[in-house]
Design a protein that fits this description.
By secondary structure, the protein is mainly alpha-helical. It contains 13 helices and no strands. It is elongated.
């Protein structure tokens, strides 16, 4: 890529090579070199397609350094320049994750909702809906609850039922319905077959709810179950 960025006879190819070089530096966590590569890209020469690629690579540069606010600014530029719906869906989903990490639930909810507008593949659509539940305010809870109950009746969601019940528990907690949340978390654990991460998350939330209620014996048992499921790292 260094060679092409200098020696290519096609000016646009030079710029594309610089973008790929930026991506390589990102993946190698060589951020000083990545920053230099970003500065060398002649943005005025880029096509819309290359603009989308460049701004996505910029966003990755900031995300890998946990500079989420800066990542959001350039990610919006990537979404605007990108023409492929499936890629726009992916970038919009990442936008929701960034708002979630910044603890800005209203904006996270809106981003995950916007992701659905691009009709992503089902796995992403499902995860966007789950994350909407996590970031839902009281104004959105009723509609999401109806949607999740409908999803529970759909056979294509059998392997996802543990996550759906967990999402319902999050909605319960947003409305301070702790007993309902505990029931949904127990259903989540019962339905879980091969998703150890989800099962651990359900056990952990049950442990915290019991600890909060000063029910120490069940809290200890749920924490023990959590510890047995989570990976060493």
């Amino acid at each position: 890529f260094r060679y092409v960025a200098v020696e290519s006879e096609d000016e646009l190819t030079k710029e594309e090579a610089k973008i790929w070089l930026l991506r390589v530096y990102n993946q190698e966590n060589e951020f000083a070199e990545a920053s230099a590569a970003m500065r060398q890209v002649r943005k005025g020469m880029l096509t819309e397609e290359l603009k989308a690629d460049f701004h996505a690579a910029e966003a990755e540069y900031f995300i890998l350094q946990k500079r989420y606010e800066e990542a959001l600014d350039v990610l919006d530029l990537a979404i605007k320049a990108e023409k492929r719906k499936r890629v726009r869906a992916r970038y919009t989903f990442i936008k929701g994750q960034l708002y979630d990490a910044l603890e800005r639930p209203e904006e996270a909810y809106r981003a995950f909702s916007d992701c659905l507008e691009f009709r992503p593949e089902y796995a992403m659509e499902f995860q966007a809906r789950i994350r909407m539940a996590k970031n839902a305010g009281n104004n959105n809870a009723a509609d999401l609850r109806a949607m999740f109950k409908k999803m529970l009746r759909d056979d294509k969601n059998i392997e996802y039922r543990d996550q759906i019940y967990y999402a319902l528990a999050l909605l319960d907690l947003s409305e301070n319905k702790k007993e309902d949340a505990i029931e949904h978390l127990q259903s989540s654990i019962k339905e879980s077959t091969n998703n150890q991460v989800q099962k651990a998350s359900s056990f952990l939330l049950l442990a915290e709810l019991n600890l909060e209620a000063q029910a120490y014996a069940p809290a200890q048992a749920y924490y023990d179950s959590t510890a047995s499921l989570i990976s060493k790292d």
